[in-house]
Write a structure and sequence with these properties.
The complex is a heterodimer of chains A (about 220) and B (about 160). With about 220 residues, chain A is mainly alpha-helical. Chain A has nine helices and four strands. The two termini of chain B are about 30 Å apart. The chains are: A mainly alpha (about 220), B mainly alpha (about 160).
Chain lengths: ~220, ~160
């Protein structure tokens, strides 16, 4: 469309450059969430839905591998089957805390999970993410209800999590980067793309009473 | 779908979101959860529609918070729906209804075809083309008025008009 008005508007575009591609940390966070349950349910349907189910399954398997690369290699870089990842997840729950009223979300695998693998330690990384999201949501509620004690508790819990269970890969590090020596605690790794600093900035705002950023994170992640 | 994250963030930024990256991340999260609703061949109209709803919801929340006097007024003021451009263009765009403005911007800034833009707005393509034509005419007339110095300074901008 080359109408002069459209051309003038195009020239005035305030954000002419499309921003960057998603960082692995964000990609991992999103794809670690349960996908569309309708796609899984449609597996029972015949014919036309099989392609969608297949696409979802393949995507989920790829995603699990990618997710694991992006988040955590708790005890090493090798890959493990889903039962091991689930055991890691359960073990990590004993080392992390959730806010009052929250429970650990179910660790979901795609329908063909028995054929998928994740790097060792991914279960621990998922537990760290679940704890982080839960405390963020708890903090939002505390700020909105003016419960200063609960807000302080959430702030302290998230600071502890960032200090002991969250790492940032160095600039230019490969996706499979892990801290050395390997931590004894479950951990997740943020890519060096500003994601961790955005998270810290959100916490600083929340500590000042502005829940906007952590509310967005809470809405996006909704722990179980 | 994830390949469009940058485009969605840019969309949110162009619509005045103060935290466009967070909006884009939320859009992707919603899309992931509703994957069966996202057109696989062309997800952008769906993604932009979701981003639009989030940006508008944030603006409404901020406006409500500001109305209730919570926090610093500067922090809670609703984000501008269009960023500051050259004053005449800004004024002319603001004089349009929200739907007219969005129709123009989807084509001009998001580079959607009229069919894609219609899908994003949930209207049929024919109706969209008519709206786009009228919006272009109105914008041009407004800009002409402005350049001729005949702009009525008392005109009120109705950002809620659809």
């Amino acid at each position: 469309m080359s109408d002069s008005i459209i051309v003038r508007l195009r020239r005035a575009n305030p954000v002419p450059e499309v921003a960057t591609a998603p960082g692995m940390e964000l990609f991992a966070r999103i794809t670690a969430l349960p996908g569309d349950s309708r796609l899984v349910a449609s597996e029972r349907r015949p014919k036309g839905h099989r392609a969608i189910v297949l696409a979802f399954t393949v995507l989920a398997a790829v995603v699990l591998a990618s997710t694991a690369y992006a988040i955590s290699h708790w005890l090493g870089g090798d890959v493990v089957k889903p039962p091991v990842t689930k055991r890691e997840y359960v073990a990590a729950q004993k080392l992390l805390t959730l806010p009052p009223g929250y429970s650990w979300p179910t660790f979901r695998f795609p329908p063909d999970a028995e054929n998928s693998v994740t790097p060792r330690g991914a279960g621990g990384g998922h537990a760290v993410m679940a704890a982080q999201w839960s405390w963020e949501c708890y903090w939002v509620a505390a700020i909105r209800t003016h419960d200063d004690a609960a807000a302080a508790r959430a702030h302290a819990a998230l600071n502890t999590l960032l200090a002991h269970n969250v790492y940032e890969a160095p600039a230019g590090a490969p996706e499979e980067w892990t801290p050395s020596p390997l931590p004894s605690q479950p951990f997740m790794v943020y890519a060096h793309d500003g994601g961790l600093e955005r998270t810290r900035a959100g916490y600083r705002l929340a500590a000042a009473g502005d829940a906007t950023r952590i509310a967005q994170s809470c809405r996006a992640n909704v722990p179980g | 779908m994830f390949a469009h994250l940058g485009a969605v963030a840019a969309y949110a930024r162009r619509r005045g979101s103060r935290d466009a990256d967070a909006v884009a991340a939320e859009v992707m999260t919603i899309a992931w959860r509703r994957l069966s609703d996202v057109p696989r061949d062309d997800p952008r109209p769906w993604l932009y529609a979701t981003a639009r709803n989030l940006v508008q919801a944030d603006a409404r929340r901020s406006a409500r918070a500001a109305a209730h006097g919570a926090g610093e007024p500067g922090d809670l003021a609703p984000p501008p729906e269009i960023p500051e451009l050259d004053p005449a263009l800004t004024e002319a765009l603001r004089s349009l209804s929200r739907l007219d403005r969005e129709a123009l911007l989807l084509v001009a800034w998001e580079d959607l075809t009229p069919t894609q833009a219609a899908r994003s707005l949930g209207v049929n393509a024919t109706a969209f083309r008519v709206r786009l034509l009228r919006a272009r005419r109105r914008l041009r007339a407004r800009l002409d008025d402005s350049s001729n110095g005949s702009h009525d300074e008392t005109t009120h901008l109705d950002l809620e008009t659809t």
